[in-house]
Amino acid sequence: MRKTILFILFLALLTGCATGYQESGGGYTYVTWNEMEGKEEHPLVGADWATFEVLDKNGYAKDARQTYFQGRTIEGADAATFERLSELYARDTSRVYYQERVVPGADPNSFEVFNLQWGRDGNDVYIQDRPIEACDPTTFKLLKDSWQKDSRCAYREGRKVPNADAATFEVLNFWFAKDRYQVYDDIPRVIEGADAATFKLRGGICQVCAQDKNNCYSYEKVVPCEEEK
Predict the structure, then answer these.
(1) Which of these, 201, 204, 205, 203, lies nearest to 219 by C-alpha position?
(2) Radius of gyration (Cα) for the chain, nearest Å?
């Protein structure tokens, strides 16, 4: 009996903490939850309940006149042609949106989502709502530890790695990458003087420690070569 009561209380707690679009008084409200304030309800101002449609419980919705992301109106969006592409991306006949923000320059006809925060069209690649000016969008791919590359360039979180040789570019870990000619940190920038041919991570628990034939490094800085632990 005691276990049953505890289970019922647990279900009640989960229900009370539920977020997203929820029916309320013949319409909908958007519910959020935080530890300081608890449950908060955000009215959808001006919504047309007769045509209101939830496209994603925790994200997109629309009615005959307006579109919404997490209860916030998406200014200028065309409700008639608006469609959800993913949890975070949507489009209408003329624009692409990340959450409620317009993705500048994105082509809605060719835009596709290929990762939670990444999309591309025929002209560029986008991280969230930022175009990255990709060298070759068609071959762009995600690598491990927040690095990327295409057939001509390499990137760190969508920022071009300076003068990287894409053909020989390799990721060492979150903080380091290299190619045939240079070594890079996560800013990304060239680690001046580092020897790409012999540059490698040091052993042990330090993830920001590396060495080449000439020096040892902590992040991008040259440091004394101490015994590995």
Answers:
(1) 201
(2) 24
Contact 90, 61 (CB under 8 A): no
Q: Are 156 and 104 in a shared domain? A: no
- The 8-class DSSP code of residue 167 comes to G
What is the number of residues in the chain? Answer: 229
Same domain? 85 vs 143: no
Distance CA 152, CA 46 (A): 49
Q: Is residue 131 one of the residues assigned to a domain?
A: no
Q: What is the pLDDT of residue 17?
A: 61
Helix (H) or strand (E) holding 131: strand 130-131
pLDDT per residue as tens digits for the range 45-60: 899 999 999 999 999 9
Q: Which domain holds residue 44?
A: 18-109
138-152 pLDDT tens trace: 999 999 999 999 999
Phi, psi (deg, nearest 5) at residue 109: -70, -35
User: For residues 79 and 92, what is the distance between their CA atoms, to the nearest angstrom?
Assistant: 8
The answer to the question of residue 120 being in a domain is: no
Largest CA distance in the chain: 72
Which element (helix H / strand E) includes 13? helix 2-16
The verdict on 49 and 91 lying in the same domain is: yes
The count of structural domains within the chain is: 2
Q: Which long-range contacts (CB under 8 A, 24 or more apart) does 213-221 make?
A: 217/191, 219/175, 219/185, 220/185, 220/187, 220/189, 220/191
Q: 4: helix, coil or strand?
A: helix
Examine residue 178 and state whether it is found in any structural domain, yes or no.
yes
